[in-house]
């Protein structure tokens, strides 16, 4: 109520003043038209400057932000204790409305699921443009600068069903037709499939040498499904083998190059047969004949050198592999005592 009253009184008092103000303004404009022209020109220059120095970088940044990065494949090859060859096949999609060149830049990769995780790898990204569809394939040796961070990434990659990686760097964009380059941040988040503890690994074609109580006495083919887009050059991998919570010996896979999808690889083991048979006597193994083995990484050797980041991953958690021991030994089940 009091507010509207106040407004009314303002208009009553303001009306005559407004009219004389208007007249004064017209006179002023007639006399000082040149001043208005100068002000208009200044404003135009300011707007143009704002567009070029604020607007264009913002448009450049928003185009970089909107670009979609898709990763088709990652290879980690020639693994050595402190380096590896990294290859990435990827594509970048944009709406294609702005033509621009983007400088090559150094991008760092972070495990985004862990707060403030340090970068685990540094890659050189090539020059690109803002075209609608482009292929970005990278192949370069990478030095392990931060082993702890790279171990942390490998452990997450081995254990988790999926994980999010942040790729980040600073680069420059040059829109077509402009001579200036503008700073932009390139930051992308990519959720990738992890190895999910290689669940579902099966052993087929198993052969046991019952008379060999020590040394290699078990051979077979492991069928390992790699649910990720990564190819990993692991080398010779040795696992400790547990049956019914007891260490029953080592299992080895030589020259393991884990590719996406199904891998069929030879395995060999030296197993404590007494230990395996006593695990077979326990329920439910004696009902089904299947012994659930747990595998824990003990050693990863590639060309005579231990690979600490892969070993950290494979020794961080047990993988479970069910093996039908009764079938291998030709025993009838159930055989519970
Ligand atoms: C990239 O694609 C090429 C050609 O299809 C293929 O040979 C290479 O293994 C791929 N690399 C990765 C990292 O997926
Ligand atoms: C880049 O990777 C794609 C697969 O993502 C492949 O088709 C293409 O052949 C590769 N190009 C080169 C030059 O390796
Ligand atoms: C990621 O993994 C979690 C379980 O760890 C699962 O609940 C979720 O659905 C997965 N997300 C995707 C996109 O696969
Ligand atoms: C089983 O092991 C024994 C003792 O090591 C060996 O003499 C024998 O040749 C092996 N049998 C087979 C089929 O490998
Ligand atoms: C199992 O492998 C580890 C590491 O290679 C080795 O130290 C150990 O002696 C092996 N154990 C058996 C019983 O072969
Ligand atoms: C796997 O083992 C079989 C039989 O021992 C052998 O013929 C074959 O060459 C082996 N494969 C590899 C990749 O080592
Ligand atoms: C094999 O396992 C049995 C019981 O599981 C144990 O008594 C024996 O000492 C083990 N043998 C070796 C060589 O570790
Ligand atoms: C794996 O071990 C075998 C036998 O010791 C060796 O000949 C081979 O070079 C090793 N492979 C790798 C990748 O180190
Ligand atoms: C793996 O399983 C064995 C046997 O159950 C257990 O002693 C060991 O602590 C487990 N290791 C990890 C890292 O979970």
UniProtKB/TrEMBL annotation:
Tagged with keyword Isomerase: no
Single GO cellular component term: fungal-type vacuole membrane
Keyword tags: Membrane, Transmembrane, Transmembrane helix
Name of this chain's protein: Amino acid transporter arg-13
InterPro entries per the UniProt record, alphabetical: DUF3712, Tag1
Taxonomy, superkingdom: Eukaryota
Coiled coil spans: none
Pfam family, any one: DUF3712
Transmembrane regions listed in the UniProt entry: 32-56
The UniProt record lists the keyword Cytoplasm: no
């Amino acid at each position: 109520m009091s507010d509207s009253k106040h407004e009314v009184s303002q208009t009553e008092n303001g009306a005559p003043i407004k009219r004389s103000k208007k007249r004064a303004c017209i006179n002023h404009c007639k006399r000082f038209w040149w001043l208005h022209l100068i002000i208009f020109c200044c404003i135009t220059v300011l707007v143009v400057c704002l567009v070029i120095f604020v607007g264009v970088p913002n448009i450049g940044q928003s185009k970089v932000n909107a670009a979609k990065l898709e990763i088709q494949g990652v290879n980690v090859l020639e693994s050595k204790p402190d380096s590896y060859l990294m290859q990435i096949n990827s594509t970048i999609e944009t709406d294609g409305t702005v033509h621009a060149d983007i400088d090559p830049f150094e991008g760092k990769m972070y495990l985004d699921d862990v707060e403030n995780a340090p970068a685990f790898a540094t890659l050189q990204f090539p020059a690109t443009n803002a075209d609608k569809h482009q292929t970005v394939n990278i192949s370069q040796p990478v030095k392990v600068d931060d082993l702890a961070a790279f171990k942390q990434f490998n452990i997450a990659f081995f254990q988790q069903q999926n994980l999010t990686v942040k790729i980040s760097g600073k680069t420059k964009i040059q829109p077509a037709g402009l001579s200036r380059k503008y700073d932009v941040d390139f930051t992308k988040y990519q959720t990738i499939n992890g190895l999910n503890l290689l669940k579902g690994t099966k052993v087929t074609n198993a052969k046991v040498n019952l008379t060999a109580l020590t040394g290699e006495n078990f051979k077979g083919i492991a069928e390992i499904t790699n649910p990720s887009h990564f190819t990993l050059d692991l080398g010779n991998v040795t696992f400790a083998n547990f049956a019914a919570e007891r260490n029953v010996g080592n299992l080895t896979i030589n020259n393991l190059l884990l590719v996406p999808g199904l891998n069929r690889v030879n395995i060999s083991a030296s197993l404590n047969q007494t230990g395996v048979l006593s695990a077979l006597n326990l329920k439910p193994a004696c009902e089904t004949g299947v012994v659930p083995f747990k595998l824990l990484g003990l050693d990863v050797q590639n060309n005579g050198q231990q690979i600490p980041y892969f070993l950290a991953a494979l020794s961080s958690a047990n993988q479970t592999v069910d093996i039908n021991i009764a079938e291998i030994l030709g025993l009838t089940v159930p055989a519970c005592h």
